[in-house]
Amino acid sequence: MNVFLDDFGIFLSRKRNRFCIKKGGEVKEIVADDVDSIICCSSGVAFSSSALELATENNIQVIFAKYRGWPYAVLMPASLTGSVRARREQFLAYNDERSVVLAKKFIAGKLVNQANFLKLMAKNRRQTDPKLSEKLYDSGKLIDDANDRISREQGSNIDEKRQQIMNLEAEAARYYWDCVRQILPAELEFTGRITRGATDPFNAMLNFGYQAVLFTEVWKAVSYAGLDFYAGYLHADRSGKPSLVLDMMEEFRQQLVDRTLIGLITKNVIKPNEIIAADSVEEGRVLSKDVIKVLLGSLQERLDSEVMFNGQKGSLKSFIHLQPRCMVRFLLKEADYAPFCLGW
Question: For the CA atoms of the chain, what is the radius of gyration?
Fold first, then answer.
């Protein structure tokens, strides 16, 4: 489970092998073995050094984030897993064809998942809304076409091909988000994807899901595989930018976050008028606390849900942790790399 600390006055301490979460007169104890990550999104949370020590002893990452931005700090054990050889190959691969292959695979995972989702939505609406059903299915095929064109790109290093790949991905994104707009209720006023600083309800939920949940899980998976967070291929190098984490997130954005949020909205679990916080003492908080609670619970449930991929059955979370290890085998030229994507 992920422990989410998002309110003023919370104090996290340690009691033997348990974390104690105190707020006011309430105390909740959680056994360390049950904790995967601790995510702090409030400037009003305090920690004891012994609680942080307990986290590092149990390989529990402590993530510090703001509501309108990616995590700004991650506390993790000083000792890392994985082989030095894998990291050496990770850097060497940037200047050969492996960088192009991996970039295309990361995008393929994203686009196949998007296309299959639209086709599934088209199937579900065939009787109730034939016109929308046709639009969704056709858009799914257009995304497939963009992915096919990306797959045919060839190059000896990613710097030669990144712009062409990203242009085709942007084309597919326009088809996808336009369809999402038509699926969502009009009250959300979703006009398209906004990444930084979004204040409209659906984009704010997407950003929260990507940043607070998916990013932290992929960061941890990359850490366990012994790879460098900042040496990616699809996302260009920039100081402080964890490019490899962003690369590997692409395969899971739709399956973890988009699918979950669209389901919560279309099934009326979350109502449009409940999403935005009425008032906030936290700088940058957009979403109401009740919605954040629902999002965290639903995203955790999706992480734990079983799926079938590449002939294996396991939780979505287990495949998030599997993919960086598969990347290591690809870098070491021991196996091919198959992007994570599910059928419809």
Answer: 21
> What is the pTM (predicted TM-score) of this model?
0.89
In this predicted model, what pLDDT tens digit does every residue of 331-340 receive, in sequence order? 999 999 999 9
**Which residues are within 8 A (CB) of 128 and not within 5 positions of it... i.e. 6 or more apart?**
none
The residue among 39, 36, 18 whose CA lies nearest residue 27 is 18
Q: Is 61 helix (H, G, I), strand (E, B) or coil?
A: strand
CA–CA distance, 314 with 291 (Å, rounded to integer) = 28
Q: Helix, strand or coil for residue 199?
A: coil
User: Cα torsion for 251, 309, 261, 220, to the nearest 10°?
Assistant: -60
Among candidate residues 43, 64, 66, 53, the one with its CA nearest the CA of residue 19 = 53
- Beta strand ranges found along 112-267 (DSSP E): none
Q: Residue 314: enclosing H or E segment and its boundaries?
A: strand 312-315
All structural domains of the chain, each given as residue ranges with its CATH number in brackets, are 2-64 (3.100.10.20), 84-331 (1.20.120.920)
Reduced to 3 states, what is the DSSP secondary structure of residue 116? helix
**Cα 184 to Cα 188: distance, rounded to the nearest angstrom:** 7
Provide the token pair at 314.
Answer: 């396991």
Give the span between the Cα atoms of 104 and 234, in whole angstroms. 8
pLDDT tens per residue, range 248-289: 999 999 999 999 999 999 999 999 989 988 765 566 678 888
The count of other CB atoms within 10 Å of the CB of residue 293 is 13
